[in-house]
Amino acid sequence: MKVDELRVLEADELGMRLRSARRELYELRFKHAVGQLENSSQISKVRHDIARIMTVIRERDFGFLPSPSVAEAEGAGSAVAVAEAPAEADQGEEEEAAKPKRARGRKKETAE
After folding, report:
1. Which residue, among 24, 106, 11, has the nearest Cα to 56 in the 3D structure?
2. In CATH, what is the architecture of 3-80?
3. Of 8, 42, 47, 66, which has the most beta carbons under 10 Å away?
4. Whole-model pTM?
5. For every one of its 112 residues, what pLDDT tens digit does the chain have, with 9 covering 90 and above?
């Protein structure tokens, strides 16, 4: 399963695929515990599929990619909205915001 295939699916289809992938992962783990699983690499493949599905869902939640219904309504077809990169911050501001280094060892007592 590729990410491009997932991005064209509707939200309810993604939800169904996520549920089925989680169910498959449950069954694979159960088979592995019982000793019936022949190919243990299937577990990692299903975990990666779950991660891909969740990534597409979160991208839509944050608005990085439009849902397929929005893209079709605009007539864009395969147009993908790209988030703009934030403006570069001055190097001086980054240095001021940095945390001070912690001293190692015991602090010396100062006389007042």
Report:
1. 11
2. Orthogonal Bundle (1.10)
3. 66
4. 0.58
5. 788 999 999 999 999 999 999 999 999 999 999 999 999 999 999 999 999 999 999 999 998 866 666 656 555 544 444 444 455 455 555 555 666 667 676 666 666 5
